[in-house]
Design a protein that fits this description.
Length: 357
Amino acid sequence: MKLTVNRLMLIILLAAYVILSIIVRRIFVAGLIDWYTIGILSSLVVVNAALLSSGGIDRISFRILQNFNNKRTLFLFSVILTLALSMFLTNDVALLVLVPITVAIGKFSKEDVDDVIIFQAIAANVGSMLMPFGNPQNIIIYRESVRNFILFLRVMFPPFLVSSILLLIMIFLLKSKDFDNKLREPPNVNLSLFSINFVLLLVIIVVFLAGLPYYILILAILLSIMSMLFNEPSNLSRVDFTLILTFILIFYDVNLARELLKIRIPKDTLDIYAYSLILSQFISNVPTTVLFGKVANWVPLAYGVDIGGNGTLVASLANLIAFRNMRVKDITRFTKFSFLFLFITSIIGAILLLIIS
């Protein structure tokens, strides 16, 4: 089995779990995992895997390619679509849906689309910062410290707007060339599998927005799995159970470590911002958010972990998803764009915090 960055992170989290279990002399400590958040993420991962297996995504990518004949228009379409989708789903799930489309476009057109995938990762991190349900860290911050949708939207709109404009400017500065579709026949689609799971996707979104009971998420997962098994059992292999387990271990390990080490959380606005942004580069923004926990001064934390999603590969799980799907796994190529974006937006974020504080 190939050791990917995702699996390496999982191995580290499992090792931390073993060490922590030995220290506390218990296999499991209750109350450390936000199971509702895990349920949302898990159901989206499973349902989107079914959508990918249906062939519907390949058909969409084929149709997209019929309407775009150069890389810049593909860039713009992909980034804007990723920005929009990541507002309402998580950034990770948006990429699980959209990056395979880009990969399929590259396959059909015989073109290198790795740059498009890199900018999709940046766009997912940017788009997801606007809504409280856009990414796991926002879900945690909103449920722990905010619970006011209008307030959250008003506070997060400035960095979202500035980051989106910067992203579009960077795209226009990139070189572009024409390409042709090398595939003449559209891919086949399993319409029943696609339809069932599209409806389930809408149900999951409604469940989260309306705060409906947790068992509906479990039912959605079971129905999605059954639809895959009924159509083709091998489809189940597309479900990223590693990603689900990674989220569970992040909650458990970080919360337990925080209690054991009695970590002191900074209270000054710029300190919270700087610490959360920098820490995100090393342990990812979701563990950083879990580490900070419930804070009264939530705005700099939200700015720090959302802006800090760009940069290193591990800064955001969205980055790992994008990198895993690149044709050439070139870390330098990925971080060149991501770090440049991080450098500019981190300065802008600090200025915005000084203005509103």
